[in-house]
Amino acid sequence: MQLSTIQQKIFDDNRLKTIIGLGTGKGKTLTSLLLAQGKILIVVDKQQKVDKTFENTLITFNLDKDITVLTIDQFRKTWQTLPYFETLIIDECHKQLGGAVVYFRFKTYFKPSSICKAFFSYVQKHNPERVYPLTATIEASPMTIYNACKIIGVHFNLNDWIKAFYFLLNERYRIKKDEKTTDRLIAVVSKHGYYEKHDDAPEQIYQQIYVDNTPEQHKRIEEIKIEYPDMQQVGKIYQIENGVLKGNQFQESETFTCEKYTHIQQIAKEHPRLIVYATYTEQIDRLYDLLATSYSVYKLTGKTPKKVREQLLASLHNLNNYVLIVNTAINSGWELKHCPTMCFFSVPYTTRPHHRIQAEGRIQRTGNLKVNTYIDIITRGGVNEALYNAQKNGKSFSEKLFFNQSKPIDMFQQTLEDFKRRGISEIQIGNNKYKI
Question: Are 344 and 375 in contact, with CB atoms under 8 Å apart?
């Protein structure tokens, strides 16, 4: 088999415990399997388990390895009963080795996630000979790298680490986002593991198309703010901004006129090979019905069986004209490396910025680096734009923060509407009179 330069170096170094922080499509799965020895425990997210990513890699490269693959939830529930494994591989460790830095009563605390605690306990109990945390997005959280280092036996002073990568604002710790801090984090990974992105890739094309809510969307959003006076309204507003509102057992789903659907038709016309990311089932179905009249359209969702997915992706590799609509939750474990265009009809509704990086990596792969076009259709001034800005800047999106920021404006608007309902057309503040 032909390994890339970085893969060959990792294999030749043959470290027993190391972080493998290669970019999406750089071959982390194969590299970790080549290093692994004896009985191998691999912990992955649910989608990787369903797709049998590691098992299929063994078959593809004709490797004879004794592997046991568990989902994150399976490991969290059963780690106490698991036997000794010579090798532990933690896939997508940014999802598994996280935690929170908390400031409470003038003291700083670090609270690892439950799955992170399980890994610490398992490693302390069994001490595997080889441990390989894998991630394509080490920038997702400094605490992920702190924990990954701890898992492989490298211990940093916690207070010094927090001072280096966090700052305290309004009694809350926030991650430093400047370039110098990112470089410091990369240096840590490079010293105790391997870091390499697609630095040799050509400059990518990023386009933004801004749209406004239609009167119908605006009217329904105002109703939602009254129906749901709490943070539930944030997610529902985001749905409406994308032209749908999910129903339940008591209410039918709703659709709204939406400028985004006009733009997606033009994008599909201009880009013959196109991946469209959308968030909700109703959204995906509506997009499919809209585009299927003029284009060869396919869907990839959590309901797509594994065999069907494999057949679909294999067939698309050989097509020159298609639109593939993908649920934003499916941002890893597959690729269409010849596709040159990706459109985010809606950005992933998530607090984790690294999901966007993972999604973009579906069409930027080692061995076929190229100029890709990434198009975002963004609803101006709402949840959609706030999500986009957060993910673009590598920050987490906070529903609570968005809700609290928009709340005073909503109260003012409601007050004006109340005045109008009561027939008040003019108010006086001090010596000045204002028309409503």
Answer: yes
- Cα torsion for 330, 334, 340, 341, to the nearest 10°? -10
Q: What is the largest CA-CA distance in the chain?
A: 86
Which pair of tokens denotes residue 399?
A: 């529903």
Q: Across all residues in the chain, what is the average pLDDT?
A: 87
Residue among 34, 88, 56 at smallest CA distance from 335: 56
CA separation for the pair 213, 224 (Å, rounded): 14
Contact 347, 388 (CB under 8 A): yes
Q: Could you give phi then psi for residue 173, rounded to 5 degrees? A: -80, 135
- Distance CA(300)–CA(120), nearest Å, equals 36
CA 55, CA 3: separation in Å to the nearest integer?
A: 19
Distance (Å, whole) CA 36 – CA 132: 9
Spatial separation of the C-alpha atoms in residues 212 and 68, rounded to whole Å:
50
21 vs 194: CA distance, rounded Å: 6
Residue pLDDT, tens place only, 98-131: 888 888 878 888 888 899 999 999 999 999 999 9
Query: pTM for this one?
Result: 0.64
Note the residue count of the chain: 436
The β-bridge partners of 172 are 169
CA distance 54 to 47: 12
Task: Check: CB of residue 20 under 8 Å from CB of residue 91.
Answer: no
